[in-house]
Amino acid sequence: MSDDSAKKGRRVRLARGVSPWLLPTVAAAAATAFLTRRDRRWALAAVPLSALTGGMLWFFRDPDRTPGEGRVLSPADGVVQSIDPWPDGRTRVAIFMSPLNVHVNRAPLAGNVASVQHVAGGFLPAFNKDSDQNERVVWHFETALGDIEMVQIAGAVARRIVPYLSSGAKVAQTERIGLIRFGSRVDIYLPEGISPAVSVGEKTVAGVTRIDRG
Q1: Residues belonging to the active site
Q2: Which CA distances in Å does 169 have to 40, 111, 115, 173, 182?
C-alpha cells in the first residue's frame, strides 16, 4: 500500500447530516468554556458539554475504507444479530449497530437505486425481535444479482434516518448511502441461491466484510 493510500485509509471525516445535532452542542460547549474564564462556576456546565461534544464527534465519525472483495459487502458496521431464511427463498442478514459503531451505511453492491421508502413505526431497542416494525427506510437496488433489498431500522435512541440518495441514482459498491443516528440495525436480503458468508455473532465492517459466500 502506498503512503497516499495509507493516509487515505486513516483519514476520518464527519458524517453528512449531523449538523442539527452537533452544531448546537459545539456552540454551547464553546460558550460555557468562554464564560468559565470569567466565572469558574460555569465549569459545571462546560465540562459535561465538552465531554458530550467529544462523544458526538466520535459517534458521527465517517472513516474512509479500503473496499473488501465480494459480490455483496456489508452495508453496516456492527454484529450479525440473526440470519433468517425468508419464505420467498431469500436470506435476511440482520446487523445490529451499537452506539459505539460507525453509523454511516454503505451500498452492498453497485447498481441503481430502484426505490427509497420511509416507513413510520415505533422505536423499540434494535436488538428486540419486534424491532422489524420500527421506524425504517427500505431500499431496493437494481444490481447484477437482481433486486437487492436493504432496510435501515431506527432503534430506541435513534429517531432519525438520513438517506443520502434518492430513487434513480446510480450507486457504486461501498458508496455512502445514508446515516442512522445512534444505536440501530441494518438488514440485507440475499437473493435465492446465495448463501451468507457470515455467522451470528460475527463482527462486520461496512464496505469491507463479505456477506455472500462465493
Answers
A1: 184
A2: 53, 9, 9, 13, 26
Tens-place pLDDT, residues 86-133:
999 999 999 999 888 998 999 999 999 999 999 887 656 555 555 566
* Separation CA 167–CA 91 (nearest Å): 24
Confidence check: pLDDT of 156 > 50: yes
Sheet containing 161-163: give its strands across: 104-106, 176-180, 161-163
Sort 87 into a burial class: Cβ within 10 Å, 0-12 / 13-18 / 19+: exposed
Q: What angle do CA 41, 47, 53 make, to 5 degrees?
A: 140
User: What is the full DSSP assignment across 4-24?
Assistant: HHHHHHH-EEEPTT-HHHHHH
d(CA 23, CA 57): 11
Whether residue 201 has pLDDT greater than 70? yes
Its pTM stands at 0.79
